[in-house]
Amino acid sequence: MSTIKGLVKSDVKYDGSSLRVAIVHARWNKAIIDSLVNGAITKLKERGVKESNIVVESVPGSFELPLACSRMIAGSRIQTGAASVTDLLGGLNFNLPGSRSGTPAPPGAALPPPNQPFDAVIAIGVLIKGATMHFEYICESVSHALMKIQLDTGVPVIFGVLTALTDDQALERAGLGRGSEKGHNHGEDWGLAAVEMGSHTRRWA
Ligand code: DLZ
């Protein structure tokens, strides 16, 4: 029997060719992260987002994702003049060492000035439940913070944080399942969601 759960594909094929998208990912559970990030980049490119308009940045763990997303959105707006410095407290001296678009920049390298603010940010992390309450606290605070950032800034923040109870749950959701079923790579959905939401918010502006 087929399932009723899951995402129904949009009838519209959104065009990402004019969009600029940031991916911010944690480095905890890196093998799973890599697969999710690659899935997202594949779909962004499939929808026409230019490699030079995909910026990938890493942070230590999922707990660091909200601050990074917030600063990247603010910084890209200041650099492009889309917001004034006074609007965006803390955005001065914004610099993104080690960021990459397509291929990694050398550590310490500054990003070239972008020609437009980010249309969407994808926050990617993999939280796997352990023996303590760490998992619950991080899941709760990160999901609330990411929602707040997108509502406060009006820039879509795609929730690419897996909150898995077991290693296998996380692996399956990154297309790396250990059984006969490899599972579906959710990173692909996040790439498509970024293009769809980036396109919507331009129309809704
Ligand atoms: C500390 C911690 C733990 C226990 N588990 C994870 C995890 O499963 N996934 C993840 O992304 N990060 C984890 N972290 C690290 C925290 O997110 C954070 O980086 C540290 O607490 C430092 O603020």
Overview of this protein structure:
38% of the residues lie in helices and 16% in strands. It is α/β, with parallel strands linked by helices. The chain has a single domain (21-189), classed as Rossmann fold (3-Layer(aba) Sandwich), CATH 3.40.50.960. Strands 2-1-5-6 form a 4-stranded parallel sheet, with helices on both faces. The protein has a two-stranded antiparallel ribbon with strand order 3-4. Helix 1 crosses helix 5. The structure holds ligand DLZ. Residues 26, 28-29, 60-64, 125-128, 130, 134, 138 line the site of ligand DLZ. Ligand DLZ binds next to strand 5 and helix 3.
Short description:
The protein is an alpha/beta fold and 205 residues long. The chain is built from five helices and six strands.
Q: Termini distance?
A: 42 Å
Number of domains: 1
- Quaternary status of these chains? single chain
Physical arrangement of strands within the biggest beta sheet: 2-1-5-6
State the CATH superfamily name: Lumazine/riboflavin synthase
- Contiguous low-pLDDT stretches (5 residues minimum) are 88-100
Mean of residue pLDDT?
87
Q: What characterizes the major β-sheet?
A: 4 strands, parallel
Count of extended strands: 6
CATH domain fold name: Rossmann fold
- Return the CATH class: Alpha Beta
Number of helices: 5
Proportion of residues in β-strands: 15-25%
CATH architecture: 3-Layer(aba) Sandwich
Radius of gyration, in angstroms, nearest whole number = 17 Å
| Bound ligands, each once | ligand DLZ
Note the run of SSEs as H and E: EHEHEEEHEHH
Choose one word for the global shape: globular
The residue fraction in helices comes out at: 25-40%
Protein name: 6,7-dimethyl-8-ribityllumazine synthase
Pathway: Cofactor biosynthesis; riboflavin biosynthesis; riboflavin from 2-hydroxy-3-oxobutyl phosphate and 5-amino-6-(D-ribitylamino)uracil: step 1/2
Catalytic activity: (2S)-2-hydroxy-3-oxobutyl phosphate + 5-amino-6-(D-ribitylamino)uracil = 6,7-dimethyl-8-(1-D-ribityl)lumazine + phosphate + 2 H2O + H(+)
Family: Belongs to the DMRL synthase family.
